[in-house]
C-alpha cells in the first residue's frame, strides 16, 4: 500500500528525476522555484506525462513506461489542490464543488451541502468564487478535492496566495480539516515552516532531482547535504578543513573549532543555524570567539546581527539571530563574544 | 424595386453562419488540442488561407473543385444529381469558405485564453473531455466565440468576389446585395444602388455594435 513514484521527464531547463515512497504519512516537497515540485505533482495526477518510470498507488499501476500503462487523470482518483485554487469563475460554489460528481441530483445536493457545512461554508453555496475572500476560496478548493474522497490529496503551495496574517490561521484550519482524512497527502512548498509543521516526511528537490528523502525532523536537525542545509534555513555555511583528530577549521569564517566526536569522513562544509550561537562574556571558554558587529537588522522580536571574526574583512559574515531581551543585556561595544556549541554544528557533504 | 437581393443575402448569410459557426468551433478545438506544434502551424495556415487570399482566387479554386468538368463536381452531378456551380448553394459555399477563417481564429484565440489550470482541474475532478469542453472551455470562451460569430456573419453578408466566381450574378437566384449593388451601378441605376448600400450599412453597423456588446458584456460572475 502507499504511493510509489520513480519518474523521469525531459524538461526545458533540467531533466526531472524524482523517486520516493510514502505510506500514509504526510510528505512535503521542498525546493526552490522551478525545481520541479509542481511538475512532479502534475505527473502523479496524470495531467502531465513522464517520459519513463513508474507510478503505483495502493497497488494500482497509474503509470508504467515499460508496460505502456498511462491512466487518464480521470481514472486516478487523485485530488489536486492548485496553487491559485483553479476555481471555475463562472460557476457558483455549489457547482464548483459538485461538478465532477456522478450521482443523482438529490444525492449530489446532499453531499455538497454536507461538505459545505464541514468546511464552514454554509450560506455561501450560491455565490461566485470572486465574491468570496481568499480564505474562503481556499476552503472551497479543498472541499472540491475532498468531496471525491481521493486516494491521494496533493496540495500545490496551498498557502502561498494568502496574506501573512491569514496564513497561520488557515494552516491550522486545514490541519484540522485533514485530521479525519486517511489518504496520502503530498504538499509542495518552498516554505520550510510549512514543511516542518505539516509533514512527517520530506523530499528535497534540487534542479528537478530528488536529492534527499527522509523524516522531516531528522533532515532539519541534520541536513547532511548542502542544498538541504540551505533549504531548511541554515544561514551560516562554511567550507571545512580537518586539522587534527579533534580540531576542525571553518575556512570561510577563519575559526578553529574543537570537537569531541569524530567528524563524518565525507564532510565538505559545516553549518551553524543563526539561532544556535550563544552570547558569551569572554573568550576563555572552548569554541568562543570575538566578533566585530558589522550590521544589525531589526525584526519584530529579534535582531539579525551580521558579524565578522575580529573585524577581519577577508572572512565571510556570520548571521546571528538573537532575542531582543537577550541582546539588550550584552555589554556595550562593537565587539561581542559568541560560543559555538559543539552539538549544534551541522556536518554537510 | 427588386427585394430579392435582400432576401437572398439574408438567407445566404443566415445559413452560412450556422455552418461556419459549427465548422469553426470544431476545427478550432481540433487545432487547439493538436500535440505537434509543426502540424498545428501547417493546419492553421490552410485554415487561415481564405482570409488572406483575394476572394477571386478562392472563387477560382472553388470553381476548380465544384466545376462540372472536374472530378468532384462531376461526381456530385452524376452520382447525386447535384449541380453546385451557379446555384444558390454556391453562394452559401462561397460565404462559408470566406468567413470561416474569422470564426476559426476567433474561436481558437478564445479557447487558448482559457486558463489551462482550469482544464487540468476538470480532469483531476474526473470530468470527461466532452464535459470539460461544454462546461468549462465553452462558457469561458463564449464572448470571444460569439464575437467571432458576429464578425463571420458580417463577412458572409458582404461576400462578393468568390460568390461572383462560383455562383455568378443571376437575378432572383444568386444575386446577393453586394452583387446587386455592383450590377445597379454598372447599369447606371445609382438610386437603387444607394438604397442597397444603406441596407448593408445598417446591417453591418448593427452587427459591429452587437459584437462589442458581446465582448464587453458584463458577466454576472465577474461582478
Rounded to an integer in angstroms, the radius of gyration calculated over CA atoms of chain B is 20 Å
Helix/strand order of chain B: HHHHHHHHHH
> Radius of gyration of chain A in whole Å, from Cα?
25 Å
Shape of chain B: globular
Number of domains of chain B: 1
CATH C-level label of chain B:
Mainly Alpha
- Overall mean pLDDT of chain B stands at 90
Strand residue percentage of chain A: 25-35%
Ranges of chain A where pLDDT stays below 50 over 5 or more residues in a row are none
Average predicted local confidence, pLDDT of chain A:
86
Number of strands of chain B: 0
| CATH architecture term of the largest domain in chain A | 3-Layer(aba) Sandwich
Terminal CA distance of chain B:
50 Å
Structural class of chain B: mainly alpha
Number of distinct helices of chain A: 9
- Which architecture of chain B per CATH? Orthogonal Bundle
Number of domains of chain A: 2
Structural notes for this entry:
The complex is a heterodimer of chains A (349) and B (223). Chain A has 349 residues and is an alpha+beta fold. Chain A has 2 domains: 3-227, P-loop containing nucleotide triphosphate hydrolases (Rossmann fold, 3-Layer(aba) Sandwich); 236-348, Beta Barrel (OB fold (Dihydrolipoamide Acetyltransferase, E2P)). Chain A has 9 helices and 21 strands. In chain A, the strands form 4 sheets. A 6-stranded mixed beta sheet of chain A has the order 7-8-9-3-10-11, with helices on both faces. In chain A, strands 2-1-4-5-6 form a 5-stranded antiparallel beta sheet, with helices on one face. Chain A has a 5-stranded antiparallel beta sheet with strand order 14-13-12-15-21. The longest helix of chain A has 15 residues, at 164-178. The mean pLDDT of chain A is 86. Chain B has a single domain, classed as Orthogonal Bundle (MetI-like fold).
Write the layout of secondary structure elements.
The complex is a heterodimer of chains A (349) and B (223).
Chain A: E1 3-10, E2 15-22, E3 27-30, H1 37-45, E4 52-57, E5 60-64, E6 69-70, E7 78-81, H2 93-98, H3 105-118, H4 134-146, E8 152-156, H5 164-178, E9 184-189, H6 192-198, E10 201-206, E11 209-215, H7 216-221, H8 226-231, E12 236-244, E13 247-250, E14 255-258, E15 269-272, E16 278-280, E17 288-298, E18 302-309, E19 318-323, H9 324-328, E20 335-339, E21 346-348
Parallel strand pairs in A: 3-9, 3-10, 7-8, 8-9
Antiparallel strand pairs in A: 1-2, 1-4, 4-5, 5-6, 10-11, 12-13, 12-15, 13-14, 15-21, 16-20, 17-18, 17-20, 18-19
Chain B: H1 4-32, H2 37-52, H3 55-66, H4 71-80, H5 88-112, H6 116-124, H7 129-157, H8 161-166, H9 177-186, H10 190-216
Helix pairs in contact in B: 1-5, 1-7, 2-5, 5-7, 6-7, 7-10, 9-10
Amino acid at each position: 500500500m502507499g504511493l510509489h513514484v520513480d519518474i523521469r521527464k525531459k524538461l526545458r531547463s533540467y531533466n526531472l528525476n524524482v523517486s520516493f515512497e510514502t505510506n500514509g504519512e504526510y510528505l512535503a516537497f521542498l525546493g526552490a522555484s522551478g525545481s520541479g515540485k509542481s511538475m512532479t505533482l502534475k505527473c502523479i495526477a496524470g495531467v502531465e506525462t513522464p517520459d519513463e518510470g513508474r507510478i503505483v498507488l495502493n497497488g494500482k499501476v497509474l503509470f508504467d513506461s515499460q508496460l505502456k500503462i498511462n491512466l487518464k487523470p480521470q481514472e486516478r482518483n487523485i485530488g489536486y489542490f492548485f496553487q491559485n485554487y483553479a476555481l471555475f469563475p463562472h460557476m457558483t460554489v455549489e457547482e464548483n464543488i459538485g461538478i465532477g460528481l456522478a450521482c443523482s441530483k438529490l444525492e449530489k445536493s446532499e453531499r455538497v451541502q454536507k461538505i459545505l457545512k464541514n468546511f464552514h461554508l454554509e450560506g455561501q453555496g450560491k455565490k461566485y468564487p470572486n465574491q468570496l475572500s481568499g480564505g474562503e476560496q481556499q476552503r472551497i478548493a479543498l472541499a472540491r478535492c475532498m468531496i471525491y474522497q481521493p486516494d491521494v490529496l496533493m496540495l500545490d503551495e496551498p498557502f502561498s496566495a494568502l496574506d501573512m496574517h491569514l496564513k497561520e490561521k488557515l494552516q491550522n484550519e486545514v490541519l484540522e480539516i485533514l485530521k479525519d482524512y486517511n489518504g496520502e497527502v503530498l504538499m509542495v512548498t518552498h516554505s520550510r515552516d510549512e514543511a516542518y509543521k505539516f509533514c512527517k516526511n520530506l523530499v528535497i528537490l534540487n534542479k528537478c532531482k530528488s536529492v534527499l528523502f527522509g523524516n522531516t525532523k531528522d533532515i532539519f536537525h541534520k541536513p547532511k547535504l548542502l542544498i538541504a542545509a540551505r533549504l531548511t534555513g541554515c544561514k551560516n555555511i562554511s567550507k571545512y578543513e580537518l586539522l587534527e583528530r579533534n580540531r576542525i577549521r571553518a575556512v570561510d569564517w577563519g575559526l578553529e573549532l574543537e570537537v569531541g566526536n569524530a567528524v563524518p569522513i565525507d564532510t565538505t562544509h559545516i553549518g551553524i543555524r543563526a539561532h544556535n550561537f550563544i552570547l558569551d562574556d569572554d573568550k576563555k571558554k572552548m569554541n568562543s570567539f570575538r566578533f566585530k558587529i558589522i550590521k544589525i537588522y531589526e525584526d519584530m522580536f529579534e535582531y539579525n546581527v551580521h558579524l565578522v571574526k575580529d573585524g577581519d574583512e577577508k572572512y565571510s559574515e556570520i548571521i546571528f539571530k538573537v532575542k531582543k531581551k537577550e541582546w539588550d543585556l550584552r555589554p556595550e561595544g562593537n565587539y561581542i563574544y559568541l560560543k559555538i556549541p559543539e552539538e549544534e554544528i551541522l556536518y554537510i557533504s | 424595386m427588386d427585394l430579392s437581393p435582400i432576401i437572398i443575402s439574408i438567407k445566404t448569410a443566415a445559413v452560412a453562419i450556422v455552418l461556419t459557426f459549427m465548422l469553426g468551433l470544431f476545427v478550432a478545438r481540433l487545432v487547439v488540442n493538436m500535440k505537434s506544434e509543426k502540424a498545428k502551424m501547417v493546419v492553421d495556415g490552410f485554415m487561415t488561407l481564405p482570409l488572406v487570399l483575394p476572394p477571386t482566387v478562392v472563387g477560382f479554386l472553388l470553381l476548380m473543385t465544384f466545376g462540372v468538368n472536374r472530378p468532384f463536381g462531376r461526381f456530385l452531378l452524376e452520382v447525386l444529381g447535384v449541380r453546385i456551380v451557379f446555384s444558390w448553394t454556391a453562394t452559401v459555399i462561397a460565404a462559408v469558405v470566406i468567413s470561416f477563417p474569422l470564426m476559426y481564429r476567433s474561436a481558437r484565440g478564445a479557447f487558448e485564453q482559457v486558463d489551462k489550470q482550469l482544464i487540468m482541474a476538470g480532469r483531476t475532478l474526473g470530468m470527461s473531455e466532452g464535459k470539460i469542453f461544454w462546461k468549462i472551455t465553452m462558457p469561458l470562451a463564449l464572448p470571444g466565440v460569439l464575437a467571432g460569430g458576429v464578425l463571420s456573419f458580417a463577412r458572409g453578408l458582404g461576400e462578393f468576389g468568390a460568390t461572383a466566381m462560383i455562383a455568378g450574378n443571376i437575378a432572383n437566384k444568386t444575386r446577393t446585395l453586394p452583387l446587386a449593388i455592383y450590377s445597379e451601378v454598372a447599369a447606371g441605376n445609382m438610386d437603387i444602388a444607394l438604397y442597397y448600400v444603406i441596407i448593408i450599412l445598417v446591417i453591418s453597423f448593427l452587427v459591429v455594435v452587437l459584437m462589442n456588446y458581446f465582448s464587453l458584456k458584463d458577466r454576472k460572475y465577474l461582478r
